[in-house]
C-alpha cells in the first residue's frame, strides 16, 4: 500500500525539470538521481564542491578525492565542475539551485523543517542542512508518512529542533504528495488504497484540498 | 622568494600551545594527513603543541589524521559542522567525557566565516540558521522583508591544507573535490602551510589554472603520493602505529 523509499525517490524524480540544478540530501534522497525521466537532463550539485557528477564507480575503482556530501565515491561526467566551499554555498544560498530534496524527522504545516537533531542526547551534527533549506527555489522533503512507532511526521508544529523556518514547499511521503501553501498542507496525491479519512488520521495537521486528488502510484522498483 | 620547506617537521615547527589551526578537508578528501601526523610526532617528542583549537568540517574518522590528533588529547576545542563519520569513536568518546569542546557551525556558514576572515570582512548576514537553536544569541536583521542572522569572521594562527601542485611562490592547484576548504583557509590563517603532491618550478603551473595564489600561502612542503584517510581506515591503520 505504501511506497518504498525507492518508489518515493522515483516519484520525486518525476517533478525534476529538464535543465534543473538539483541537490540531493545524504541517504535516501540520493536515489532520486537514478530515476530521471528519459529526455530530461538535470545537473546534480554536491555541497562539498562538485556540479555534474556521475554515478558511483565499481568497487575498487574509487578515487577518494572524488566523493559526494555523503562521502561516497562518485565519478566524473563530461562537463563536471569543481569549486571550493564558499562558491558551493553561494550556489546554495544565492538562489541558484532549482530543487533541494532532503530527508526529515518532522515537517510542520507552516513549512518548518526538523531534520538535524533528535534532541539533546548524543553528538550534535548539522552539516549543510541549515544552508540547503535557504535559497533553492523548491525545497522538497522525502520521508515516511509516519514514524516507526506510527506517530505522524507531518505535524502542526515541530517538536524537534528546527533546521529552518517556513522553508519546505512539497513533501513526498510514503502515502501522499503534499504541498505547503500559505501555512497549510494541501493534498495533491495519495495512495489509492487509503481513504482521505484514513490518511488524515495518520497526519498531525489538517489536510486541505485544492482540486482533484491524484493517485500516487509508482512502478515496482 | 622561496616558500618551500625542507620537511614536514619544519612545516609544523611554529605551531604553539593554544593556537588555532584550520585543517583542510571534507571527510578524507583534502585532509593533510602527513602534516597532521608530523604535528603528532612533535607532540610525542616534546609535549607540544597542545590545547589547540581546530577548525575542520568534520571531527575525524578512525584513528588517523584529525581523529589521531584528538586521540592524543592535543585538541581542546573543535569548530566544525558535522562531527560524525563512518567511525567517529575518537571524537565521540572525547566529547562525551568532556575532554573536548564542540562549537557546531552550519557548513555553509563555516565556509563563509572562513572566507570572510581571509577577505577582511568582520561580519555578514546569512539566512542560514534563522529561527534555530544555532542562531540563539546572534543579532537578527531584516533585509528586503526577510530575516538574516549576523555571523562573524573566522581566522586562525595556522592553516594546514593539502594541495596537488605547488611552486616555491606558494601558488597552488588542488585535485578534484579535495579543493573544498583549502583556498578559504589559506587566506584566513596568519600562516598557511600546504603539503603538495608535486613541488614544481614557478611557471610550471598555468597562471590560468592557479586556484590559490601564492600571496595566501607561507609554506609549501612536498609529500609525494600522500595517504588518503579512507584508504587508511579501510586498512585498519592507526597513528602512531601500534607496535606488533
From TrEMBL, chain A:
The keyword Transferase applies. SMART domains: CoA_trans. InterPro entries: 3-oxoacid_CoA-transf_B, CoA_trans_fam_I, NagB/RpiA_transferase-like. It comes from the Bacteria. Keywords: Transferase. GO terms for molecular function: CoA-transferase activity. The keyword Transferase applies. SUPFAM superfamilies: NagB/RpiA/CoA transferase-like. It holds the Pfam family CoA_trans. PANTHER family: KETOACID-COENZYME A TRANSFERASE (PTHR13707), SUCCINYL-COA:3-KETOACID COENZYME A TRANSFERASE SUBUNIT B-RELATED (PTHR13707:SF57). Belongs to the 3-oxoacid CoA-transferase subunit B family. NCBIfam families: pcaJ_scoB_fam. This is 3-oxoacid CoA-transferase. It comes from Pararhodobacter marinus.
TrEMBL record, chain B:
SMART domains: CoA_trans. Keywords: Transferase. It comes from the Bacteria. Transmembrane segments: none annotated. The keyword Metal-binding does not apply. It holds the Pfam family CoA_trans. GO terms for molecular function: CoA-transferase activity. NCBIfam families: pcaI_scoA_fam. Belongs to the 3-oxoacid CoA-transferase subunit A family. This is 3-oxoadipate CoA-transferase. It comes from Pararhodobacter marinus. The lineage of its organism: Bacteria, Pseudomonadati, Pseudomonadota, Alphaproteobacteria, Rhodobacterales.
Amino acid at each position: 500500500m505504501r511506497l518504498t523509499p525507492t518508489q518515493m525517490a522515483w516519484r520525486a524524480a518525476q517533478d525534476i525539470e529538464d535543465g534543473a540544478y538539483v541537490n540531493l540530501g545524504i541517504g535516501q534522497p540520493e536515489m532520486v538521481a537514478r530515476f530521471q525521466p528519459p529526455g530530461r537532463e538535470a545537473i546534480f550539485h554536491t555541497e562539498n564542491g562538485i556540479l555534474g557528477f556521475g554515478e558511483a564507480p565499481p568497487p575498487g575503482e574509487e578515487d577518494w578525492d572524488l566523493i559526494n556530501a555523503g562521502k561516497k565515491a562518485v565519478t566524473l561526467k563530461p562537463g563536471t565542475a569543481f569549486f571550493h566551499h564558499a562558491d558551493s554555498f553561494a550556489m546554495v544560498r544565492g538562489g541558484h539551485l532549482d530543487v533541494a530534496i532532503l530527508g526529515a524527522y518532522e515537517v510542520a504545516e507552516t513549512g518548518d523543517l526538523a531534520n538535524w537533531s533528535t534532541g539533546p542526547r548524543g553528538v550534535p551534527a548539522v552539516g549543510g542542512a541549515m544552508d540547503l533549506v535557504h535559497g533553492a527555489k523548491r525545497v522538497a522533503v522525502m520521508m515516511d508518512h509516519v514514524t516507526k512507532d506510527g506517530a505522524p511526521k507531518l505535524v502542526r508544529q515541530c517538536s524537534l529542533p528546527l533546521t529552518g523556518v517556513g522553508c519546505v514547499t512539497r513533501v513526498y511521503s510514503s502515502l501522499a504528495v503534499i504541498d505547503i501553501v500559505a501555512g497549510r498542507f494541501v493534498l495533491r496525491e495519495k495512495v489509492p488504497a487509503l481513504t482521505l479519512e484514513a490518511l488524515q488520521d495518520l497526519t498531525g495537521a489538517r489536510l486541505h484540498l485544492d482540486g482533484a486528488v491524484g493517485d500516487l502510484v509508482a512502478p515496482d522498483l | 622568494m622561496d616558500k618551500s620547506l625542507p620537511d614536514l617537521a619544519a612545516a609544523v615547527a611554529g605551531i604553539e600551545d593554544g593556537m588555532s589551526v584550520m585543517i583542510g578537508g571534507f571527510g578524507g578528501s583534502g585532509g593533510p594527513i602527513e602534516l597532521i601526523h608530523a604535528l603528532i610526532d612533535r607532540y610525542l617528542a616534546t609535549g607540544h603543541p597542545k590545547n589547540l583549537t581546530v577548525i575542520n568540517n568534520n571531527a575525524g574518522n578512525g584513528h588517523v589524521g584529525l581523529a589521531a590528533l584528538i586521540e592524543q588529547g592535543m585538541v581542546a576545542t573543535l569548530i566544525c559542522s558535522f562531527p560524525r563519520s563512518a567511525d567517529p569513536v575518537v571524537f565521540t568518546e572525547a566529547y562525551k567525557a568532556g575532554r573536548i569542546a564542540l562549537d557546531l557551525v552550519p557548513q555553509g556558514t563555516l565556509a563563509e566565516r572562513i572566507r570572510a576572515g581571509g577577505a577582511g570582512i568582520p561580519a555578514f548576514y546569512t539566512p542560514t540558521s534563522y529561527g534555530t537553536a544555532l542562531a540563539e544569541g546572534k543579532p537578527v536583521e531584516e533585509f528586503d522583508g526577510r530575516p538574516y542572522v549576523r555571523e562573524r569572521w573566522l581566522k586562525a594562527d595556522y592553516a594546514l591544507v593539502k594541495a596537488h601542485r605547488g611552486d616555491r611562490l606558494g601558488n597552488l592547484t588542488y585535485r578534484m573535490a579535495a579543493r573544498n576548504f583549502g583556498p578559504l583557509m589559506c587566506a584566513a590563517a596568519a600562516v598557511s602551510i600546504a603539503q603538495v603532491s608535486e613541488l614544481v618550478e614557478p611557471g610550471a603551473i598555468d597562471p590560468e589554472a592557479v586556484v590559490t595564489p601564492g600571496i595566501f600561502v607561507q609554506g609549501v612542503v612536498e609529500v609525494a603520493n600522500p595517504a588518503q584517510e579512507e584508504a587508511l581506515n579501510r586498512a585498519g591503520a592507526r597513528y602512531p602505529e601500534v607496535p606488533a
